[in-house]
Structure formats: structure tokens, C-alpha cells
Structure prediction request, 174 residues.
Amino acid sequence: ELQTITFRGVGGLFDSKYHKIGFVKRGGRLSLLVDCVEVGSQPIGDVGAISKDGSIVLGAGERSKRTTSLELQKLKLTLDPEVVATESCDELGGGKISFKEQYDFLPPFSLTARGIGSVASASQITGSDGKTAAYSIRRGGNLEIKTSAMFPDGLPKEFGLTGVFRMKQGALGE
Prediction:
């Protein structure tokens, strides 16, 4: 069964600056962290098995359901929710963050220095710290991978998801 959770007061994410977001699923709650500060926590039911028949889509617009324009520097899943809950925002100013057990979403989408040439709707750019690679994804691209290819065994009961991105106002409404 699909669960929808809405976090209010996050309009500042669409100010054309890089921001770090994190989701932490622990027990019966899902928390949202923006720039390393928890901005909300909502009750959530058990996630259960994630259907492997679906797809994972990066930055889909609310209306078009197609990839919208955004710049993505990092998107990782970690098996330890405490990593996301306690990590710093050093990469917004140049530092590096180490993870324990993690899954990096960018390589399967060929969003790497070696693979970017095969992605017609994206290009490599400089990230938030002026050194780290980020990827500019143009509107209308189809960055989609079957869930079964990315997570053949499904997701664990507890996890964290973190990402660094930059978007313009209204991008998700496209």
C-alpha cells in the first residue's frame, strides 16, 4: 500500500542554491533533515517489501512524471539511519563525508565521470564546493531504472537516504 507523507515549510529548497536533504526511517517515523537540521518527523507504517516491478526515477516533475531540470551532486542510501541523522554538511563547504554500508544511486544512472557521455539529458558540472563533481540533468530526460535491477533483495526495515542537489523554483511542478 502506498504511503504519502508531506513535510511543510521546505519552500526554501528551491532557491537555486545547493542543499543537502536526508530522510531517516527509524521505527515508526520518517524524519526529514534539510542542511543537516531536522525540520520534521512524521509517523509512517511499516515499509514492507518494496515491489521490484516498479521503477526508480530521478527528479520527476509532479505533472509530467518525467525528469525535471536539477543539479545532483550526491544521492546515497545507507543501511544505518544514524549515519544520515548524525552526519555533517561539510560537502556544502568542501569537506568529505564517509559512509558505512551504503548504496550510491549515481553510477547505475551513468552519472559518473566515465559514464556521463552516455547520458544525453545530463552533463557533468562543478558541485557545491567548487571541486566535487555534480550532474546537471535537463528537463525531459528519462532517468529511470527498474527497481528490481537496483534493489533485487528490496530495502531493509531501517535506512537513511541523503542527497545534495540544487533546483530552481517550480522545477518539480513541471
Q: What stands out?
A: The first helix runs from residue 81 to 86. The helical segments are 81-86, 147-150. Strands lie at 19-26, 29-34, 37-43, 55-57, 70-78, 102-104, 122-126, 133-137, 144-146, 159-166.
